[in-house]
Design brief:
2 copies of one chain form a homodimer. The first copy, chain A, is 40% helix and 25% strand. The first copy, chain A, is α+β, with helices and mostly antiparallel strands and 314 residues long. Chain A folds into 4 domains: 3-62, Arc Repressor Mutant, subunit A; 75-123; 140-221, SH3 type barrels; 229-309. In chain A, strands 5, 6, 7, 8, 9 and 10 form a 6-stranded antiparallel beta sheet that branches. In chain A, a hairpin with a 2-residue loop joins strand 7 and strand 8 (179-186). In chain A, helix 2 (22-29) crosses helix 3 (33-45), helix 4 (75-88) packs antiparallel against helix 5 and helix 10 packs across helix 11 (293-309). The longest helix of chain A has 17 residues, at 293-309. Chain A is elongated and about 90 Å long. At the A-B interface, helix 1, helix 4, helix 5, helix 6 and strand 4 of A face helix 1, helix 4, helix 5, helix 6 and strand 4 of B. The structure holds a DNA duplex (30 and 30 nucleotides).
DNA sequence: TAAAACATGACAACTATTGTCATAATTAAA
DNA sequence: TTTAATTATGACAATAGTTGTCATGTTTTA
């Protein structure tokens, strides 16, 4: 076997094992101890963070986590990784902040001069713009760890009604619009609730093997349980069509007439009508809601509230 | 010099040069032609996409773009790259779709069995949720290329008033909320306008070295030129504070009283009040706008329009 | 103090790499 | 058609690198 192949095998072995003596390696790979020492020196030169302790009970220790075999990337691929990371940079907290930095650095350093310029120039012409969040989410990593261990959580949560304590089993964690959310099963009521991770003030992890039957992906595709379907029917002007096709929740359901006007005829959940009413309020006369009557009532009620809140002074 | 080092040097040389003969390599590195042939065979085995043409004027050709020296990643770093890519998967169009796929594949293949399970399991507990966009942006790559070449563009653009033709100089391209935008200088009026790339029906690239003085980053930090500052003053209930701190444009300006209520006192641009009025409409009595009067008038006006659009029928 | 570990050097045996030469195949230009 | 330029491959000796063995240190801890 070639030296390179052997080195790679040993690299993978030791970086998985973390703690070992030269004798162990010599035995598993059927090579002499002297050679093991030489190999480890080579790996150390190649950048493997390894250190040795002399004396009885000594041995070698690999510092960082498991290392992958070296991978060949093209420059275009490196650029893609850069921009993927750029698109994440507006999250104040991520479960892998330090890794993002180290990867960027490794890649950027390995780029030739010319390619570095290309990345720099691309960076000045393309961006992923999102407002920078200032809200911090210190418990994110802890929550994620608890989720992966199927632990229960006792959380102090700040909601509309103040701070309450709840015992929950988390389904997963997801990011939306720069904020982190945690759908979880409230163990007292057996209902699924949605929490914002930044609003969890503190938590206690209770380790027991409660296994949930629901998965995050499942939950995201088919959210909030109590489905109360109602029909939504809205007529749209040309401008209304333009606006609705830009709105994620409607873009698939807009039907367009040949003259550019159109309509929406779909089924929505009762729970969504507050959000939807705010949307159609904005569209004004460009969207005429015909159904459901609850939505029309809501629009009227809210309009009346607004007029009551702001009596005419002029 | 060790063989590995030499191979690396040749890898870099060859992948930068793309086209070469064995003799050239032999000369530049002072090795025999026979060895060059052997080396190129090795590189080919290592995955370098290279092919040879025999005969006079023949030679070797490296297919893909420049290759980076092999990089050692830790498993955690690989996981970070995976999730950065996951967060991008909701964009229907990206300037580097194919690279994302090839990188993911390379990384996933190089992970040990155990680590693959870890990635899979993480993937079922963490997500970046954004509504999947169905709007396609076929001209994205073309626009980006034009931007980087400082070219002018004559675009057929679909706006409120129908399809118009405009001659513009693009500043850059950015993604927001799943859609791609292009701020550009309209050459007739010298004003900066914001276009949505998916609404560009077709375009003609006019190659001339017009160099803009404004950069994308600059523009993003300090957008739309005509600043008409007005004072915004809003009183907030506890719930109002909660909602406003979740809204990117206000989260930094909310001032909180000790009892949990608070207020916003800041300067906004005249142009923003339509967006802002929709936001405060939603908050209803949880936010009482005191200034500017224009905003109050807008809220009243819109409420009246809504009431006129939906006369009471019940 | 002895045992268990790393660290390093010397050297012969072994293995891999390299250059040289030879030969073949392929292609394009003279 | 011939010739020159190119890749492709094999044989083999000279050279270079790697390995195992042995020897000698050093450090740490039971």
């Amino acid at each position: 076997m070639s030296k390179a192949k052997r080195l790679l095998d040993i690299l993978l072995f030791v970086s998985a094992k973390k703690q070992f003596t030269a004798q162990e390696i010599a035995d598993t790979f059927n090579i002499s101890v002297r050679t093991v020492h030489r190999y480890l020196l080579d790996l150390s030169d190649m950048g493997l963070p390894i250190y040795a302790e002399q004396g009885r009970n000594g041995g070698y220790t690999v510092l960082s986590s498991t290392i992958l075999p070296p991978i060949l990337f093209t420059e275009d691929e490196a650029v893609a990784i850069f921009f993927a990371f750029q698109s994440l940079q507006y999250y104040r907290d991520l479960p892998f902040n330090t890794e993002l930095k180290s990867v960027s650095q490794k890649l950027y350093n390995s780029l030739q001069n010319e390619a570095q310029k290309k990345v720099d120039s691309l960076q000045s012409y393309i961006a992923f713009w999102k407002p920078k969040r200032t809200i911090s989410t210190p418990l994110l990593s802890d929550v994620l760890e608890a989720v992966m261990n199927h632990s229960q959580l006792e959380i102090q949560y700040e909601s509309k009604s103040g701070i309450t304590t709840k015992l929950v089993h988390a389904i997963g964690v997801y990011a939306h619009d720069g904020l982190w959310y945690m759908p979880a099963i409230h163990l007292k009521t057996e209902k699924t609730l949605l929490f914002r991770v930044d609003r969890i003030h503190s938590m206690i992890v209770i380790n027991n093997g409660y296994k949930s039957s629901i998965h995050l992906q499942q939950w995201l595709e088919n959210p909030l349980e109590p489905q109360q379907p109602i029909r939504l029917y809205v007529e749209l002007t040309r401008e209304g069509v333009r606006q609705c096709t830009s709105e994620p929740i409607f873009e698939k359901t807009v039907i367009c007439h040949s003259d550019g006007t159109g309509y929406i005829d779909t089924i929505i959940d009762q729970g969504e009508i507050h959000f939807i009413s705010a949307f159609f309020y904005r569209l004004g006369q460009h969207a005429i809601v015909k159904e459901p009557p609850e939505l029309i009532q809501l629009l009227r009620k809210h309009a009346q509230d607004i007029l009551a809140t702001y009596p005419n002074e002029s």
